[in-house]
Amino acid sequence: MEPLTATVEVPAGQTDAEELQITLRITNQSDRTVGVLNPDMGVPAPTTKWPWSYETYQTSMLMSYGYLSISVIDETDKELPQRAIQAWATPVLRPKIELEGGDSFELPIPVGNFYQLTSGRTYQVVLEYGDQDLKVTTRTSVTAP
Description:
Blueprint: E1 4-9, E2 22-28, E3 34-36, H1 54-64, E4 68-73, E5 97-99, E6 104-109, H2 111-114, E7 122-130, E8 135-143
Antiparallel strand pairs: 1-2, 2-6, 3-5, 4-7, 7-8
């Protein structure tokens, strides 16, 4: 049995497909402590004048280094192209998060910043998170507000 499970939640109250954010929750289902890649990739340097949110920076950094992959598939089973948002930085990897049995952490992912979504349409979102030591994958259906 894999020690980790992943689920996706869509926070309530969202009203704009371009701003759609989901939350990836990773939970340790085992009875032992598991070290998981820490998603904290730091913050953009003030000199970069980063125009997006911290969550967009974090997501971009995780994707750039292969720690997070996202696929969004529309109602016709066509995978949407991903918008490139480059952070142009080198992350400093923090110590792994030590999850005790039953513990979890959340990772907010601003999907609407990376994909052109249409309001009212339903998409399949496939996420894979982790490093070479441990990865977790989930797939869920999300309707753009």
